Structures are given as structure tokens and as C-alpha cells.
Amino acid sequence: MSTSDTPIHVFIVDDDREMRQSLTQFLTRSGCVATSFNAAAEALEVLPSARPDVLVSDVRMPGLSGLELLQKLNESGPRPPTVMITAHGDVPMAVEAMRLGAFDFIEKPFLPARLHDAIRRAAEFGRLRDENAHLRQRLRRLSGLDRVLIGECAGMRQLREDIEDAADTEAPVLILGETGTGKELVAQALHDLSRRCGQAFVPVNCAAIIDSLFESEMFGHMAGSFTGAAGASPGHFGAADGGTLFLDEIGACPAQQQPKLLRALEAGEVIPVGSPAPKTVDVRFISATNDALEASIKSGAFREDLYFRLNTLVLKIPPLRDRGDDVLLLFNHYLLHFAKIHETEPPHISAEDTAALIAESWPGNVRQMRQVAERRILAARRGRGSVAEALRTAPAESDRELSLKQNVEHYERLLIEKALAEGGPMDQVAERLGIARRTLNEKMQRHGLNRRDHNLE
């Protein structure tokens, strides 16, 4: 008696012991899994966790009646299809049961075949209802992803499908994508579509953490565990407990900390600095990188066992240069976005503008496009500009009208590009700029700069 390979799980609620036993024996012989209760309150306690396929309940019972049970189930959200049975049925009672959502109503005494058929149909109804609800949920999710991860190329469609599939699991996810493709956006979407969506999403840029502070920032520390530790800190793992931890630039994780990261992944435990005992944490782990970790594994800079623990599921974000007509779609989207922010009308996109957009290689990907779109809008406010001008990295004379922050950003990018153009190892580039190597990595990421474009290692 099953609509699939899985037996139908039936809850029986009846205060008559002989009736419960009779129904349990009959349903078990029919191939069902039957669980019986002598009171509605007992069934209500275990319903959320047990999730039976069908509920069979008497109408007249001490305490909560069958009709009151239906009312309670309606208040608690989705419930199993319910078949009501009674020896005292009448038309008004049947009407009330149906109004409250009963699937069927059967009077005692009844033929076993009658109950058999009602349970079978109820289980099939519940299966179809759940499938339809799941499909509606998928449509809502996909519609949301369409607004967040814009694009119609095959790569973006596949990415959205992969996110939908991966969000329903607890498996670690490794996101691969060039700088500026939107790796954190993908991680946020995975979190928002998961069962952890109501908990914390904690993004961390590993390249921005100083090696000497990595352990305490990641795993937390006790008060007084080192100089300056006036109070205890939960660390990023503690802050993400129950939610999602996103580690961007995972390849920058110091080698000496990687075994501790592996332990956190495998055992769900971290040891805060200064703590005598491990602390249990429950996090969904998502990481990302814009560099192939295989090279770091070969050089010994990244542990192979950690890599294989991270890449249970892998999501690949296509670079903007490979996304065809998505370039025009995205640019128009960001033009409208920044036009609204800066309270102006978006400019007309000419044939020359279109040609410039298509010809651009977009090394900074979507992050670069956002900057270009905003530059175009700011120029349009003054009745001038073109896409080709907005694509230039050097600030134009008219950019004096930009905000102080925007001008500082422009100047910082120019200085970094100049230092990169002079060549040499990245440590020397950082030294010429008077900043730490990890700070340089962070700033290059923010500005959409790639060391491979300057033939640097």
C-alpha cells in the first residue's frame, strides 16, 4: 500500500485501545508504517519531527477532539492529509471537518477497503501537494536569483541551477572565479536559499588578515591570552555559529593554520587562543579563490587534504569577457541603478558606446563594469562623456567634481598600477607602496587589478 517504493507512514489517533490496535494491525498488513496515539496532544508533540504521510483521527476524544486537532494543525503550518473517522458522524460534523481541511470523512463501522482507499488517495494528494510546493519554491528562488545574478548566457544559467542545487545541502562549496566576478554574491545567495538563511552570514577576506593575527581572528581567543586581548572574542567561526562562514581568497590562509582549519571542517571544533579545550561550532562552510590552488598544492603552500575537503561542491563563475550579450544587459542594469542613486536620467547608449563595451576585455569583470557605469552616469549629469571615456582608468579633468572618496580611490588605483608597472616580486611592489603584502592584495582585488596582467608572480 504505497504510492512509491517507500511505505506510507500513517499516524493513528484514537482513544479507543481496541480500535487503535485493529487499525495498526490492518495497516501494517497492508504495507504501511503505523504509529498510534491515544490522545491528540501526544500526536501534536511528535508531528513536526516525524512528518507522517497521512493522519487518521477519531473525531470524538477526551481532551482535544479530532476537529480541534485539525484546527491546531492548521495553525502550525503545513500538515499531513487527514482522514477523520467517527461513530457519531452527521452532516454538520462532516461539513465542519471538510471546512477545516480534512481530506476525507469516514463513519464507523467501515469496510477496511474504504479506509485503505482513503489513505492511499490522501498519501498521493500529499505527495503531489509537496511536489507542487517545492516547484513553486524553486520558481521563487530562481526568480530571486535572476535579480541578483543577472545574465542569460549559458554559464550564468548553469550557475543559478548549481546554486539552487547546492543551497539545499550542508556540503562545503568552493567558488572559482576571477577577481570582480561576484564570488561573495554567489556565497550570499547560497546562504539566503539555505535552511540557515535566518542565521548569520559571515564573510572573511583571508588575504586581508595579518598572519600573526589569523588564528585569533578566525578561531577566537580568551581574555588575556596575548598582549592586547582585554576581552574574549568568538572569532569568525564563533560569529558564524549556526549560520554560514564564507572565506574569500582561501589560498592566502597561512600554512601553519591550515591544519586547524581542516579540523574545524572535519570535526566541527575550534580551539580559541588561550583556551584549554575545543569549542563546538556548527557552520556551513563556503570558500572562494581567484587563483588555481593546484599550483599552491604542488609548491607546498596549500594542503592537499584541505583542498579536497573544501571542494566537495565546486561552482564556477564565468568571466565577463565570456558572457556575450550579458555585457550589454549588465551595463544597462547598472546605468539604471546609478542613475537612480544620483537622481538623473540614464544616457542614451550609442553605437560607439556599444562597440566600446563589446571590445573591452573587462579584466576587473563585474566590479569594473559597476565603476564604468557610475563614471558614465556622473559624466552624464554634466551633459558630457561616453563609454569609451568612462573605461579609461585615469581620472579626467572633470572628475574634480567627484566626491573626495571617489578621487582618493582613483588616485590610489593609479599609484598601485604605477608600482605594478615597475615590475618585480609582489613583496617589492608592496614595499615601494609602503604597505603590507596582504593589504596590497586586498586593494588590488577592490580595484579589479590582476598581477597576471603585469606579468608579476
Describe the protein's topology.
Elements: E1 9-13, H1 17-29, E2 33-37, H2 40-50, E3 54-58, H3 66-75, E4 82-86, H4 91-99, E5 104-107, H5 112-148, H6 154-167, E6 173-176, H7 183-192, E7 201-205, H8 214-219, H9 235-239, E8 244-248, H10 258-267, E9 269-270, E10 279-280, E11 284-289, H11 293-299, H12 304-310, E12 313-316, H13 326-341, H14 351-359, H15 365-381, H16 387-391, H17 404-421, H18 426-433, H19 437-447
Describe the structure.
Residues 394-402 have low confidence and may be disordered. The protein folds into four domains: 9-132, Response regulator (Rossmann fold, 3-Layer(aba) Sandwich), CATH 3.40.50.2300; 150-224 and 233-318, Rossmann fold (3-Layer(aba) Sandwich); 320-392, Orthogonal Bundle (Helicase, Ruva Protein, domain 3), CATH 1.10.8; 403-457, no CATH class. It has helices at 17-29, 40-50, 66-75, 91-99, 112-148, 154-167, 183-192, 214-219, 235-239, 258-267, 293-299, 304-310, 326-341, 351-359, 365-381, 387-391, 404-421, 426-433, 437-447, and strands at 9-13, 33-37, 54-58, 82-86, 104-107, 173-176, 201-205, 244-248, 269-270, 279-280, 284-289, 313-316. With 457 residues, it is an alpha/beta fold. α13 (326-341) crosses α15 (365-381) and α17 crosses α18. It has a five-stranded parallel beta sheet, with helices on both faces. β9 (269-270) and β10 form a beta hairpin. The longest helix has 37 residues, at 112-148. The termini are far apart.
